[in-house]
Design goal:
4 copies of one chain form a homotetramer. Chain A is of the alpha+beta class. Chain A folds into 2 domains: 289 residues, Jelly Rolls (Sandwich), CATH 2.60.120.580; 101 residues, no CATH class. In chain A, the strands form 5 sheets. In chain A, strands 2, 4, 6, 12, 14, 15 and 17 form a 7-stranded mixed sheet that branches. Chain A has a 6-stranded mixed sheet with strand order 1-5-19-7-16-20, with no helix packed on it. In chain A, a hairpin with a 2-residue loop joins strand 14 and strand 15. Chains in contact: A-B, A-C, A-D, B-C, B-D, C-D. At the A-B interface, helix 2, strand 14, strand 19, helix 4 and strand 20 of A face helix 2, strand 14, strand 19, helix 4 and strand 20 of B. Chains A, B, C, D: It comes from Polaromonas eurypsychrophila. Chains A, B, C, D: This is Amidase. Chains A, B, C, D: InterPro entries: FmdA_AmdA (IPR004304), FormamaseFmdA (IPR054833).
Amino acid sequence: MTDTLIKVDLSKSPLENENIHNRWHPDIPMACWVNPGDDFILETFDWTGGFIKNNDSADDVRDIDLTTVHYLSGPVGVKGAEPGDLLVVDLLDIGAKPDSLWGFNGFFSKKNGGGFLTENFPEAQKSIWDFKGMFTSSRHIPGVNFAGLIHPGLIGCLPDKKMLDLWNEREQQLIDTNPTGGLANPPSPGTAHMGKLTGEAKAKAAAEGARTVPPREHGGNCDIKDLSRGAKVFFPVYVDGAGLSVGDLHFSQGDGEITFCGAIEMAGWVHMKVTLIKGGMAKYGIKNPIFKPSVITPAYNDYLIFEGISVDEAGKQYYLDINVAYRQACLNAIEYLKKFGYSGAQAYSILGTAPVQGHISGVVDVPNACATLWLPTQIFDFDINPNASGPIKHIDGKINMPLSHDLK
Amino acid sequence: MTDTLIKVDLSKSPLENENIHNRWHPDIPMACWVNPGDDFILETFDWTGGFIKNNDSADDVRDIDLTTVHYLSGPVGVKGAEPGDLLVVDLLDIGAKPDSLWGFNGFFSKKNGGGFLTENFPEAQKSIWDFKGMFTSSRHIPGVNFAGLIHPGLIGCLPDKKMLDLWNEREQQLIDTNPTGGLANPPSPGTAHMGKLTGEAKAKAAAEGARTVPPREHGGNCDIKDLSRGAKVFFPVYVDGAGLSVGDLHFSQGDGEITFCGAIEMAGWVHMKVTLIKGGMAKYGIKNPIFKPSVITPAYNDYLIFEGISVDEAGKQYYLDINVAYRQACLNAIEYLKKFGYSGAQAYSILGTAPVQGHISGVVDVPNACATLWLPTQIFDFDINPNASGPIKHIDGKINMPLSHDLK
Amino acid sequence: MTDTLIKVDLSKSPLENENIHNRWHPDIPMACWVNPGDDFILETFDWTGGFIKNNDSADDVRDIDLTTVHYLSGPVGVKGAEPGDLLVVDLLDIGAKPDSLWGFNGFFSKKNGGGFLTENFPEAQKSIWDFKGMFTSSRHIPGVNFAGLIHPGLIGCLPDKKMLDLWNEREQQLIDTNPTGGLANPPSPGTAHMGKLTGEAKAKAAAEGARTVPPREHGGNCDIKDLSRGAKVFFPVYVDGAGLSVGDLHFSQGDGEITFCGAIEMAGWVHMKVTLIKGGMAKYGIKNPIFKPSVITPAYNDYLIFEGISVDEAGKQYYLDINVAYRQACLNAIEYLKKFGYSGAQAYSILGTAPVQGHISGVVDVPNACATLWLPTQIFDFDINPNASGPIKHIDGKINMPLSHDLK
Amino acid sequence: MTDTLIKVDLSKSPLENENIHNRWHPDIPMACWVNPGDDFILETFDWTGGFIKNNDSADDVRDIDLTTVHYLSGPVGVKGAEPGDLLVVDLLDIGAKPDSLWGFNGFFSKKNGGGFLTENFPEAQKSIWDFKGMFTSSRHIPGVNFAGLIHPGLIGCLPDKKMLDLWNEREQQLIDTNPTGGLANPPSPGTAHMGKLTGEAKAKAAAEGARTVPPREHGGNCDIKDLSRGAKVFFPVYVDGAGLSVGDLHFSQGDGEITFCGAIEMAGWVHMKVTLIKGGMAKYGIKNPIFKPSVITPAYNDYLIFEGISVDEAGKQYYLDINVAYRQACLNAIEYLKKFGYSGAQAYSILGTAPVQGHISGVVDVPNACATLWLPTQIFDFDINPNASGPIKHIDGKINMPLSHDLK
């Protein structure tokens, strides 16, 4: 039987667990060691370490201190791994913790993190999703039920010092262009949890440790929904032993993780197997991870596809800007779903949680980029296709998503 | 038997054909009329009207006058269609002209149009693709052979005057920010072909007629590969009769049409059926077209997926910029393919022509957007998956893509 | 441009075309020769050579002389092919003849051929299907419309004399067990068409020529719906030059071709490419053809699945008999569809024409075999899934399939 | 959190568990009751109740008393269910018991059960399969590794007395045609386990209780691989409360369960939800269960397909016999796999365990039925496609499957 190398107790703080860390730094000691060819299980907290609760208030979403995230399990040392290798990770299975069969999705207040559509949805809202076997539904969003495309939002190997310095430097340069703009997050030692490090060593590493928020060369917080259970991932290795960490599990998510808080976030476990391709980074010219998707993913193949172009809702013309185009595609889908009775917030949540695809459709036809949002129709309890007899308001509006107004 | 309502003679200039136009303007007379429920066939020129030839020189790609494009077939009037309706178009089938079973792909010179990776591939190059039944391969790019995901790059209804003015106005505003920067293309009456319009009426419309380059509210040049034969599209209607035009057929294309010149471009025909949803724009809250993909598309499902983040190859950090992230994913894939013996240009062409997916994977994790490029492995004659025994150089480099240096 | 090596004129009798034959015999001269690596097009008659008409009477289905079928195009000689090789055939594309965009389906009278459910549907019936691009629908069966899974019902290489003798011998032994039972069809020289053979040579070959009805070691009349355009087939070679013939094209068919007359039968053309694996039969232990399915097939993936077991409708228990089990699954599906308003004959036709799957689900649990019939739900204009509010009779019964009573 | 209504202790005999039964009889008391809309979990023994062990001897397969099977969990009473209703069962998830992450496959001796190819493989053999997350591989069969298409081999509702009598009667009539032939299995009270029944009541029910071996009108031992986790099944109801029982879980199986002992057999658990369609049997004309397949199944779509016709390996001609045709397709696939180094037994096991499809391809072309076996190529560690450079013997024959000779 496969060993569970890292366990988490959801009734305790992640700060008490020395196999958890929330910053990237090469000095974080390995939580455990495995051999190439081994398979093993790591348990994980949800990305907030249990801050968001299974209740009907969005106060926690509004009030969270985002310098605390993400709580990762690891790093796992792989014997024989050296800088320049590729660490091959088979995600054999991923699941929720049996004592925590639910997840959350929400939008942060524009004052605290925001999200992709924060101009349109500026205040904190939350929905809770229950897991029934491979499927999920929400008491806050009626009429949808779908199979989970379960994946880790965050996975990757430790950077070496040179890579870490590079990250800190380039992100600081961006911050310096608008220091109060939230453009990036510098090291934040106050809430850093550095695994087994203590004392001086911890303080030093915490002062330098890169935040876990952005995806970077090592992978990290990619939030790629298709990097799901059953996938095979090839990670660059920067330090001896590789130092693989994982967390931020999602029961399901749409492309873009547009709601930011986040996908359907959950605590859980990952069963994985590791092997090595020695010297693989140079052999294959690898800078960022590459991966092969799973053979087991929900086979929703009937989509309604929304187009968006890089002209914003105020009519302003942008130059080949995919962000604007995807935002428009999202807003178009939200308007559409409102015709069936959903509130805008509910529609936005569906786009953030269901296995929605976001495609970069056209990026050369000046001045408009074109993006498409693919909404699977089979996740709805009713028919959402357009037809001549017009939309039927299946959702009566009696059920709403919790909203917490910003505090003055 | 289904009627071919518009015919094109590839041995003649599109300018001689009054059922062809290359600008958008509500005054362009209908080329023909149909009833809701009718199915019919329209033949089309390739987007350049035959300028690019089936030969081994990229001079034509270098020298093309891009104010001439795109040559569209139409507009087709649909009886009873009124502003505010949705025109439902079933793309029953699409194919190449039997006397023109080939297509072209290329990159424009940075001095004349460029492309998504124009900094990396600044000079004109071309590849020719032969069609054998449902499959294509190129004499300029060995080792790949794939089924066509055949689609119109450009399709949509005529704008009304108000919409046209809006387009011209907002694009001019963008141009005005950098008049020599090629940010957008204003009306260009000299090369305008306005269908049946002649004389004064033509001159007036040509002076105002919007260029066909960008996708806009009506659809237009969306270059969405999944809007393929078998798809069902719901177009906004702005003028009485709708005025549906189509052209710029692609035998195959990757998400983004990153090579710009273009997909695998071809002359051909479209068999379609039209129906109406009266008042559908308001009923369903439609601004841009929506569509349902085909049930018949190439079922490549074994992908190798490349990640890219919004840090460019010089190490510069961008803020949640999907364009930069997708460009990096593309460059990562190109570096990878070079390990198997392809030139960079050949690898770039594969990404532009094969049914490659481009996903918007993460857009909220400041400061890095994450995009993924999905490369189907089954289109290659050899195994491109990474493994411990390393890449094998299957391509010997003897075959090259034509390149034409910029003229001094 | 690809050569059309065999042409057919649908206004003439196939008997006038010396590149057509309707028996298998090694003496039939090659109609034409190709080289390994060549691609080429063959046109074909429908399997009856034009006997069944596009009209609203089933008299032709009732009256057909079944000794005349199937009219095949070929044989094509492949230079260098020798007995023991595998002939690799890429079906690059298949289509209907532009002057014949329709097909037929029917059930033979029990007195003349019958069919899988001939006890239940003992008289001749017919439906006509129109092709609109990649899709088909019938004026005799409302409410269904589906994409064609286009394939040749019949394709294979010439037998050598030894193989031919084996066929004739073993089938005659079966016939001898019940000479009037229609168990198999012996050579029938009167209606034999032997391609270019004439005179004595023709008479001799016609007397020995195996009927084209059954599938055999060489493939032949397999009626495998998934051997469709885009598939790659590996055929055993028995004679020098291989001698590849093809015909009996189907626009679409369900597993089993249960209606026998037949799938959606059509005249058309096949674009194919041939290569060789020298000595492949022994190398790979091949007795019957093997193949790889197409990457382009209709992606209907929402099925309603009907089970059947080997107890017949009279309650008789059979021992692990898949035929009985599949027949029951078919009858169960027909009863189900009748609840939506279809006649039994219409339902039976849908099972015979749509891309229905028939699976051998259990064959060891004595005494009952279990078979399943997979009905794609997306081919219907309405929802056929069961639900608590019960079936809605969408079909009003006003449209019927032509039926022709047996003549006394 | 979902309740586990029936638990099993794998260290104890199923005979000690009163929520287990191994016969069908309406008098078996409900093990527990649920309401429509409830979801719940049932644990199950493997079908032999633990008789087959995780070891390297096939003695247990040879020696098993087949009158003991199958050990089912249930019956579960559903409040409000009445005869004539349809019981809708959503299979929300299925898995192995955490303390039993392995399964077995084997062939029975021809003297004790046999199997589909028992003439070719007449002696007892066994392979053990380990589960690593969603994947499985065997220490007895190298070179294959695949994702589980997990399903219950056996599931259905209790028959009423009339249905039970019908079963016993018609099967006895078959037995009477050849009493020693093993054509079917009559009630076998000696090893009957009737749940909570004891004393007289048990003795009476045991004497009448139908064996669980065959699939019947209620579903039962259908061994349909696609009735997998995520599927939705509609079962006929014959008794008040329905009485749903389940067992015989399979981690994976090929169509037909051709090895009989059996699929990859395992102990485990089923998470399901039940609802009712009142009067659904008559409304929808239901005799046998119908179902909709899962949206989460392994997406192997690259197949090598083997044809078989109804002529056996001795050359004997059968009349439209799908069993013979499928047997030939299986034997053809086995011969093919032997070219890569597998033993016949290993190849046979792969066909019995992997997600192989068996299609009824042609059933009307007298005298030959045609069946096809679809072998997914992606489950192999190496390329099994045919090509001109011939098969490579990847398997060296050093690893063998345990075989136990029949005892004299």
